Amino acid sequence: MATNQISWIAADWGTTNLRIWLMSASNDIMAHRQSDKGMGKLKPAEFEAALLDLLDDCLTPDAETPVVICGMAGSRQGWVEAPYITTPCTPPGLADATHVTGTDRRITVSILPGVKQIDPADVMRGEETQIAGFLASEPSFTGIICLPGTHTKWVHVSNGTIASFSTFMSGELFDLLSRQSVLRHGVQQSEINTEAFSSAIMDIKKAPQNFAAELFGIRAKGLIAGLTPSAAFSRLSGLVIGAELSALDLTAAPDGNVIILGADRLADAYATGLQALGLSSRKTSVETATLHGLILAHSQLKETET
Amino acid sequence: MATNQISWIAADWGTTNLRIWLMSASNDIMAHRQSDKGMGKLKPAEFEAALLDLLDDCLTPDAETPVVICGMAGSRQGWVEAPYITTPCTPPGLADATHVTGTDRRITVSILPGVKQIDPADVMRGEETQIAGFLASEPSFTGIICLPGTHTKWVHVSNGTIASFSTFMSGELFDLLSRQSVLRHGVQQSEINTEAFSSAIMDIKKAPQNFAAELFGIRAKGLIAGLTPSAAFSRLSGLVIGAELSALDLTAAPDGNVIILGADRLADAYATGLQALGLSSRKTSVETATLHGLILAHSQLKETET
């Protein structure tokens, strides 16, 4: 790889991973690299070294290659805090970014801000860049964007702005329950059994207050009613996602205008859950959206420079 | 201690602890002992030794001291499985117990069964003995008994029978969320702040489907709205207990006829939660109820023998 082709660096720095793309001046991906040095494992003084670990061989002395970062690296426990902007707002760009001072002279580092909502209190870091990336390809989109994950976010987007959003701890709940609670004895990871999943969705939609009782019910059904570990896995997933879907006002999403930013099993589960409630959705790559969001931010940098 | 005073042994053998009482013929407590050798730490072949560890010094050769056990020692993963009896039923007694064969000749071991409910599927082991003990002192009680814990149970009791019951994984949910989820960063164990606790109860009662969003809301309020770690602790407790209380039909409990079997902080939290919903309750010692239930079972043994 000829290092002189690298024009700038796009970085998605989350809690558990650091992902970077080495970009050409025309926004071609020259290389993609990643490490497990997520924000959660680093003290503020360790971020620069973690970044240079992935970059050191391709930086030009004194060229000041721009690095544009989104995600948890900008949190209070991150590298440098990048203050939130407040909803309703357009997805933040480089004008709102926080510059990291005192870094290696071969790089200039900008961290994009997150977005906060005052009431109900909510926060995002990283997702705003993914939304910007999605809107770059569909600028007139109005509807709801679902970003599945440890903390799944549902974002109302209207006329290019993030109008409001809501975060659910469902992914983390599911992981804790399936791996660390008493349910772990009777739950086995497997393909989603659509029947068990969908009936759990409907059960919890009917009586969401029964959540903690339905959880124990999975244990009891395993002990006395022959619920298999794989069906228990699907039922647990259905209860957690079903409660979440019951909480959403999806009337703001005209048919087909629920976008799921993701293409993995979790994204499939949300699509299946929406379907069980009679709602259609579209899935689209979150990695592409992230990169497009970072490219958009970097393009603002170029505009500022000219 | 003169070992010849020991007439029988009462044992409450749960998942995490083994508690025994050395009892005289007239049901006075000669000694109380306990170990951390709960069912969860033992293989079937290890139960007898764990019991004898606490007893060895006070058994008479060939006297065949009766040991009456309730709790998880009778589960499938326990010492010997003691099959469930089915609701509606009177709390099971020694006639329903499972005899453990082949033990040390100085003891005869009986394990009381648990209770199961077919629809909705539910199970208990140990609580049935506590209910029996409570009913021994209030035989005409009709109402609801709450047994707070890792898996809190709410039991409808009518005319001396366990009519139906419902188990909530709330205690385990709270522990996982406060100690192992992202919320651990912003939650600090402290005295319950009644205002934060009660407002969480009312919030989740209004919209129980928002549970996973309200959980993340605790994180967000800590980051951007100044929620203190101690208020966050109370809010988390209020959300978990409030969702549970919203799921219950408490119309079956005439005023004052919600009994909470427990006297610890968790029992206090349930009492405060019921109060926030305008319901009164009475707390009573669960240890006393357990022992009385075991005494009741043992007294049936004596009747059988005569």
Class by helix and strand content of chain A? Answer: alpha/beta
Find the count of extended strands of chain A (DSSP E, 2+ residues). Answer: 14
Largest sheet of chain A: 6 strands, mixed
Output the number of helix runs of chain A.
Answer: 8
CATH architecture of the largest domain in chain A: 2-Layer Sandwich
Calculate Rg of chain A over CA atoms.
21 Å
Q: How confident is the prediction overall: mean pLDDT of chain A?
A: 93
Report the end-to-end length of chain A measured between terminal Cα atoms.
28 Å
- Which CATH class of the largest domain in chain A is shown? Alpha Beta
Q: How would you describe the oligomerization state of the chains in this entry? A: homodimer
Enter the CATH topology name of the largest domain in chain A: Nucleotidyltransferase, domain 5
Largest interface: A-B, 46 and 46 residues
Low-confidence runs of chain A (pLDDT<50, min 5 residues)? none
Helix content, binned percent of chain A: 25-40%
Major beta sheet, strand line-up of chain A: 3-2-1-4-7-6
Shape of chain A: globular
- Percent strand of chain A: 15-25%
The structural domain count of chain A equals 2
Give the helices and strands of chain A as they follow along the chain. EEEHEEEEEEHEEEHHHHEHEH
CATH 4th-level superfamily of the largest domain in chain A? 2-keto-3-deoxy-galactonokinase, substrate binding domain
Protein name (chains A, B): 2-dehydro-3-deoxygalactonokinase
InterPro entries (chains A, B): DGOK, DGOK_C, DGOK_N
